[in-house]
């Protein structure tokens, strides 16, 4: 059993759900945290009616989703039989799943060995022979041992190890609370930075780039050539998951940097619109996505034609 954990976001989580609807033949369970404002929304009932293996929890926080979700799950499932599966996928953000959830992309259980976590670098080109130096040129140099260099919105956890650790071990509270502290007080103190800092003190590994597709600092700042921007677009289409930040999903096409316009595959989101029930669609946001998708297609077609004639592609 694979556990998928995500935080509900109005409008955008419907894309996450749409990407998972046709994958329910696989052995996974969905855990969704819904804030108290949207707890009684019609979308919650739709989730329960359309996913055969789902758990929904009410949340009372506005930040540090992954750390607070992990603390709650660890404590809530500690006395449940059967418990959680070995592989916990914390898949937050405006994330969509591309292809099978388990399939050939997700490592098998025995791949974890003694690693408690698999972490994803924020800077996609951190190992590129040439582009990795560009971050330093733009005053965003890579600090290998800094928890801030890792993406807290996508983490894979080995639950077999997590469940045997104390909350202080993994969330680094330094005995700030007495042993009989309630779960709400514990969750309120959890933070993503401290979680990542703690995970890095144990055996961990970095996950391949394709697991967590996202926009990159160099792409946002138009720091790499057009050919590699197009290649970046192709790479994201092959990723296990894709998470485009809200500010870019909701932005108008003409207000975005060229790298964002052409480097992010907008049609991977627009192709899911038809799977979302009409009453749950945000038509204004969908129109923006469709415009970006169409304009990107038109521009890339022209670039490819010119590049082919010049022998550049």
Describe the structure.
This protein has 313 residues and is an alpha/beta fold. The chain has a single domain (2-225), classed as Spore Coat Polysaccharide Biosynthesis Protein SpsA, Chain A (Alpha-Beta Complex). It is 36% helix and 14% strand. The chain is built from 14 helices and 10 strands. It has a 7-stranded mixed sheet with strand order 3-2-1-4-7-6-8, sandwiched between helices. The protein has a 3-stranded mixed sheet with strand order 5-10-9. Helix 3 (65-76) packs antiparallel against helix 7. It is globular. The N and C termini lie far apart (44 Å).
Please give a quick description of this structure.
Helices cover 36% and strands 14% of the residues. The longest helix is centred in the last third of the chain and has 27 residues.
The CATH class assignment is: Alpha Beta
* Structural class by helix and strand composition: alpha/beta
Q: Tell the overall outline.
A: globular
> What is the CATH topology classification name?
Spore Coat Polysaccharide Biosynthesis Protein SpsA, Chain A
Adjacency order of strands in the biggest sheet: 3-2-1-4-7-6-8
Q: What kind of sheet is the major sheet?
A: 7 strands, mixed
Strand content: 5-15%
- H and E string: EHEHEHEEEHEHHHHEEHHEHHHH
Helical stretch count? 14
């Amino acid at each position: 059993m694979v556990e998928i954990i995500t935080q509900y976001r109005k409008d955008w989580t419907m894309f996450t759900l749409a990407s998972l609807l046709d994958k329910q033949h696989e052995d996974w369970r969905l855990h969704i945290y819904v804030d108290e404002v949207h707890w009684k929304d019609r979308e919650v009932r739709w989730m329960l009616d359309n996913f055969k293996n789902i758990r929904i929890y009410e949340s009372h926080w506005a930040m540090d989703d992954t750390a607070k979700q992990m603390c709650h799950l660890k404590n809530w499932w500690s006395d449940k039989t059967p418990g959680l599966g070995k592989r916990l996928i914390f898949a937050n953000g405006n994330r969509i799943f591309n292809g099978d959830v388990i399939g050939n992309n997700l490592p098998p259980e025995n791949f974890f060995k003694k690693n408690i976590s698999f972490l994803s670098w924020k800077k996609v080109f951190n190992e590129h022979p040439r582009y990795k130096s560009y971050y330093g040129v733009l005053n965003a140099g890579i600090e290998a041992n800094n928890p801030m260099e890792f993406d807290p919105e996508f983490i894979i956890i080995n639950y077999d190890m997590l469940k045997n650790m104390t909350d202080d071990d993994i969330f680094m509270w330094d005995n700030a609370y007495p042993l009989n502290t309630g779960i709400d007080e514990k969750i309120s103190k959890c933070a993503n930075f401290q979680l990542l800092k703690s995970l890095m003190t144990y055996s961990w590994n970095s996950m391949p780039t394709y697991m967590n597709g996202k926009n990159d600092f160099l792409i946002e700042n138009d720091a790499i050539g057009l050919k590699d921007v197009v290649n970046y677009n192709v790479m994201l289409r092959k990723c296990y998951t894709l998470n485009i930040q809200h500010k870019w999903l909701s932005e108008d096409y003409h207000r975005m940097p060229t790298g964002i316009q052409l480097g992010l595959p907008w049609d991977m989101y627009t192709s899911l619109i038809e799977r979302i029930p009409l009453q749950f669609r945000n038509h204004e946001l969908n129109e923006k996505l469709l415009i970006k998708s169409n304009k990107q297609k038109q521009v890339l077609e022209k670039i490819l034609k010119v590049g082919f004639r010049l022998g550049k592609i």
